[in-house]
Amino acid sequence: MIDLGSREPANVAPPAEAEPEQRRGVFRRLRESLSKSRQALQEEITASVFEKIDDETWELLEEALILADVGAPTTAAVVERLEHEVDSGAVPAEGPLIRDRLIEILAEVASTARAKIDLSAQPAVLMMVGVNGTGKTTTIGKIAWHLSKEFGLSVVMGAGDTYRAAAAEQLAEWADRAGAELVRGQAGADPGSVAYDAVSAGVARNADVVIVDTAGRLHTQDNLMEELAKVRRVIAKLIPEAPHETLISIDATTGQNGLRQAKVFSEAAEVDGVVLTKLDGTAKGGIALAIAAELGIPVKLIGVGEKLEDLRPFDPAEYAAALLAE
Amino acid sequence: MFDQLSERLQSTLSDVRARGKLGESDIDSAMRDIRLALLEADVNFKVVKAFTKTLKERCLGAEVMDSLDPGQQVVKIVNEELADLMGGTGEEISLAASGPTVILMAGLQGSGKTTACAKLASYYGKQRKDVALAACDVYRPAAVDQLITMGRRAGAHVYEKGTDADPVEIAVWALERAREERRDFLIVDTAGRLHIDGDLMKELSQIRDRTKPDDVLLVVDAMTGQDAVGVAESFAEAAEFDGVVMTKLDGDARGGAALSVKAVTGKPIMFASTGEKIEDFDRFHPDRMAQRILGMGDVLSLIEKAESQVDEKAAEELQEKLKKDQFTLEDFLTQMKQVRKMGPLSGILGMLPGMGAMKQLKNANIDERQLDRTEAIILSMTPSERADPHLIKGRRRKRIADGSGTKVQEVRALVKQFDQMRVMMRAMANGKMPDQQKLMQMAGQAPPRPKVRRR
């Protein structure tokens, strides 16, 4: 999931034996967290839906995906494809097989343009962007914790959200927990200068990763989007290839507007991936499928709860299955 | 994307409107587009389904099919049904008979509760009310600090006990203080919580039971998708909220969630937060939101406004004058005054349909002072100059500039642009539409010059 470049695997990889344990944990936690959302979806996709394959079947499938916020265009494309495959005989017209195929198709859509989180550079600069309240600061805190505690990397955090009251304090608490160094400016300071200071600090201390937070902003605020582009330019003055990874946080409860968010942020800040947050509610985060299908931006991480370990790599197949599982 | 959809919907509706006779298949295809537009606006699927069903039944009914202009009837029905779904013209907060009015704020994480609390405090502060805030979000790091900072900006007092106290106890203690200190309002900020988190929902209903708030408001992010309904239902159960605060409406989200919440719980949207600044917060008008969802602009109220301000007979006279090319600066002045009676021009622009798609115009900030100057220039002219602006040469121009406190160049520009406008208006009065581009160009030149200011 994460490309750490030439760093010594012994330094960076979590202990090998911990792996299976952790994997199970992921599955269980995801299942648990999605169980409530699944209940709702199951009402739509019960076995009976597939008992008789007719127009109503496809309509009910469409309904289920729309209710999961997948959006009309992507839903239509997915269901049309499935219907076509069943009609042509490529997929037998049997309930369970159709459902399995649906999961496959959904997973395929979700795994568009899969790429690792690129942290191979030294220092690697990761920038976090997104709309207000989508969970940027929390996500950064968790990423820093994982990189530092699990992978043993040295992390510098830049408190680039100089706008929201007490945002820096919030990040300071996370830096403390993660044992990361925090670079912060005055309230209302230029976010570019904070980013510059953070990256310089990272270079000076030969840190492994520099994580730059930014203030939440609506994608319709042109001047604030321009500010993001400026923060990028400032960072690139120190390290031309940086930021190496830019992630956008998207709240799983977000509806079709999420597509606009991803598109406009991507134009201003060249977004490499999505962090789908707050998947522990009843929202299914189907907008992530639309973002992957229409914009080719993959989901890289998911947030399934408040705990540190609730930030997880995104597994498309697992996600699709969890959505539709009985 | 939304613009495309609303364009499509509008073209469907104008297709329907253009047709003399409508078949069931015409209605079906219009319903499909309306359904799609509502789904893209994040209106809940089930709400959409029920809505289009009612709509179709009405459209297939006698009132449309037997009507002389069935297309027009369909458009009218869509408008009516949508306004009905959104529910009336808005409801008021209920105030306490004595002592502080207690407002409890609840919602999911990141919906914008703390900011909404401060904005609500500022809203009542401006009405000269003494407002206090209670900081009961002890879970999110630095939430208390945020409320203290924002409360200060809003000019409200903040009751806080740090993060170690129990939220229910803080709320009860804050209420006692508010009573003792004779505050007018106490707004209780609570932690964001998932509606499926049993413990936190129980805590919320405890705060409710102990403080007996006059109003419970649910804070909902305008960008919320299909799940808004489930969230609202859960909160309705635990907190029995009375109304909704819609946040982040300044984005380009269509806010269909608002419509769903109203449709499913019957609770009205009471306030809307429309910007970053603390004063970007106001009462919510459901009827206008309905229009926004369909991207139709607020044409109805614009027409109503115009009707109440414009004298029909005077309008006919004007039409004649335009045709005969007798339109003078005097008439222009009268027109301008009439338009300005309708309110600030930027507000009127916002009511026009399709303005959402025209970004430059949406952000256009019309300088009302420029209009004052134009008025002053015309008022400084003699009646004969107003009737025939070509009289205005060197010395007259100087006199007018001095009289109106403007510059000679401004007087010259006004006369020149008035000339161009007259040509254009004559063409329009004779039934020829000038091409769009020329019109736009002129809008850019003519006084009042719209200043395009990007935020």
Describe the protein.
The complex is a heterodimer of chains A (326) and B (455). Chain A has helices at residues 9-12, 18-44, 55-67, 72-87, 95-110, 136-150, 167-178, 191-204, 222-238, 257-269, 287-295, 316-324, and strands spanning 2-3, 117-118, 124-130, 155-159, 181-184, 209-212, 245-251, 273-277, 299-303, 311-313. In chain A, strand 8 (273-277), helix 11 (287-295) and strand 9 form a beta-alpha-beta unit. In chain A, helix 8 (191-204) runs parallel beside helix 9 (222-238). An eight-stranded mixed sheet of chain A has the order 5-4-6-3-7-8-9-10, sandwiched between helices. In chain A, strands 1-2 form a two-stranded parallel sheet. Chain A is 51% helix and 13% strand. With 326 residues, chain A is α/β, with parallel strands linked by helices. Chain A is elongated. Chain B has 455 residues and is an alpha/beta fold. Chain B folds into three domains: 2-86, Four Helix Bundle (Hemerythrin (Met), subunit A) (Up-down Bundle), CATH 1.20.120.140; 101-293, P-loop containing nucleotide triphosphate hydrolases (Rossmann fold, 3-Layer(aba) Sandwich); 299-452, Signal recognition particle, SRP54 subunit, M-domain (434 Repressor (Amino-terminal Domain)), CATH 1.10.260.30. Chain B contains 22 helices and ten strands. In chain B, the strands form two sheets. In chain B, strands 3-2-4-1-5-6-7-8 form an eight-stranded mixed sheet, with helices on both faces. The longest helix of chain B has 22 residues, at 408-429. Chain B is flat, with a radius of gyration of 27 Å. Chain B starts with a helix and ends with a strand. Mean pLDDT of chain B is 78; it is low at 1-6, 353-364 and 439-455. The chains are: A alpha/beta (326), B alpha/beta (455). Chains A and B meet through helix 3, helix 7 and helix 10 of A and helix 2, helix 7 and helix 10 of B.
